[in-house]
Design goal:
The complex is a heterodimer of chains A (110) and B (387). With 110 residues, chain A is mainly alpha-helical. Chain A has 5 helices and no strands. The radius of gyration of chain B is 21 Å and the shape is globular. Classes of the chains: A mainly alpha (110), B mainly beta (387). The interface between A and B is medium-sized, with 23 and 29 residues.
Chain lengths: 110, 387
């Protein structure tokens, strides 16, 4: 009996640790405005202000549909070595990168 | 009598907007978010017109007709727009590709070439009518197409350009009229991302993203092939992230040296013109984007990628030292000197303004409002090789 209860507690803890990466809180409103500005102008330098691509690929909702949130967040944070996509880890937190991915998927600001 | 007077008034107002004046002190300011361009007067320091309807100008550059009257604006969405700066009008616009980065005008002023990302290649149009004249797809490895960058005009009615994906430089000659011949220089280096041609049209220099160094082609001796210069400039140093690509077009040759943005180092590389030996590195505030020389070559002004894009540094080329660090504001995107260099106009995107600095005192002397300004191009470029 006792060993069964312990196993259940362990399973519950393990379940919490595996919470999805998009379970994040939104940045404060002022920072959201900065992030949308960054997305439009600075991501837009290479991906186009219409997000149809340039030096970098398009970032339209349909272009991103086949990729997971984790893949996209890691691409933002760590870049793509060997390509001009730089790592933004120094300038963006993981939560902010995830928030931007959500905005891209929703086509916000277009 | 009254009716004829009204008709005369209507007719004269239709042409009243066209200025009767020289164009030599005029220019354009790209307003990148609103698809518009301002025509500006650098003597009066004021705006004359705003021309709208130019599509996606999120990356846009321009060249001028040989008479200095028309600007050809190359837009991100493949738009090629011919603007009349005297009348403040869009004369003609064509959408010639899906995604495009820049262009050039031929030596004799009759041809406009556009460098395209999608479909990768160069397309050439009549400067007069914008009718298509030639299509030069950037095909490599039998069936792959490369983005084209670093397109410039060169003497003898040629265009020189680089293939980003293929790592090639090509020369297209229109010396025999409308049918070009193309010479290919393969394996020049990894990911040429932009290029410049020296003011005398002799050397074409492509910056490489995929390795430390630049690819040099001596246009007076093309048979000698492409040479690597300033190699391994980052050796031993940690590569820093590049949040915006440097731009090589512009007058980066000053006081007998080329001042070149390093990629992944916060430095300007100084190479002696002619032998291209690296003679100096100047530590600067961030990742350089533009290094632009004052027309006399005594100063080079440098701006930077984010997070440092609120800053401009001025290098004195006699001492090779930074003599001033300016803070125009966030989104300092571009700098353009007046024809003899007494002033420089600086676009500050996030402040929605263009700031004008005196290059002798290094003080700001005027400010003009502009909507999210990016590139600034003055008509003095009209008869300069490579611009």
């Amino acid at each position: 009996m006792r060993s069964k209860r312990l196993r259940l507690r362990h399973l519950l803890c393990a379940g919490l640790l595996l919470a999805p990466v998009t379970g994040h809180s939104d940045p404060p409103a002022a920072r959201q405005a900065e992030l949308m500005h960054l997305l439009k102008h600075d991501c837009g330098s290479c991906h186009g202000m219409t997000r149809k691509g340039g030096l970098g690929p398009a970032l339209l909702p349909e272009t991103l549909a086949m990729k997971t949130d984790e893949q996209l967040v890691l691409t933002v944070l760590d870049g793509r070595p060997g390509t001009p996509m730089p790592p933004w880890r120094g300038l963006l937190s993981a939560a902010e990168a995830a928030w931007l991915i959500d905005a891209l998927r929703a086509g916000d600001g277009l | 009598m009254v009716l004829s007077l009204m008709l005369m008034a209507a007719q004269s107002s239709a042409v009243a907007d066209c200025q009767v004046r020289g164009t030599g002190d005029l220019g354009i300011v790209i307003e990148r978010a609103s698809g518009s361009v301002q025509v500006v007067d650098t003597t009066a320091q004021r705006s004359l017109f705003r021309i709208e309807g130019l599509g996606d100008l999120s990356h846009a550059s321009a060249v001028f007709s040989r008479d200095g009257r028309y600007a050809y604006v190359f837009g991100r969405d493949g738009g090629l727009s011919k603007l009349d700066v005297l009348c403040g009008e869009l004369v003609k616009r064509v959408v010639q590709a899906g995604n495009s980065i820049g262009g050039a005008i031929s030596q004799d002023g009759t041809l406009i070439a556009v460098s395209n990302y999608e479909p990768g290649g160069v397309r050439v149009f009549s400067a007069d009518t914008l009718e298509p004249i030639a299509d030069l797809p950037a095909i490599y490895d039998d069936d792959r197409r490369s983005k084209v960058v670093g397109l410039v005009d060169a003497p003898d009615q040629r265009f020189v350009y680089s293939l980003y994906d293929a790592g090639e430089i090509r020369i297209a000659s229109f010396a025999n009229g409308k049918t070009p011949s193309v010479q290919v220089f393969p394996a020049v280096g990894r990911q040429p991302y932009d290029a410049l041609i020296t003011p005398d049209g002799k050397y074409y220099i492509a910056g490489l993203f995929g390795e430390d160094g630049l690819a040099l082609l001596n246009l007076w001796e093309p048979e000698a092939g492409v040479q690597r210069i300033v190699s391994d400039y980052g050796r031993g140093n940690k590569k820093l992230p590049v949040y915006k690509m440097p731009h090589l077009e512009g007058w980066a040759v000053a006081n007998e040296h080329a001042y070149l943005p390093a990629v992944g180092q916060h430095q300007i590389l100084v190479a002696h013109a002619g032998d291209w030996i690296l003679v100096d590195r100047i530590d600067v505030h961030g990742q350089p984007v533009f290094a632009v020389a004052r027309p006399d070559g005594r100063q080079v002004w440098v701006n930077f990628a984010i997070p440092d894009n609120d800053t401009v540094q001025v290098i004195d080329t006699k001492s090779r030292r930074i003599i001033k660090t300016l803070k125009p504001g966030k989104g300092t995107l571009h700098m353009e000197f007046t024809p003899r260099g007494e002033q420089v106009w600086v676009s500050v995107r996030d402040a929605d303004e263009v700031q004008i600095y005196d290059t002798r005192t290094l003080e700001r002397v005027a400010t003009l409002p502009a909507e999210k300004p990016s590139g600034i191009f003055f008509t003095a470029r009209a008869n300069k090789i490579g611009l």
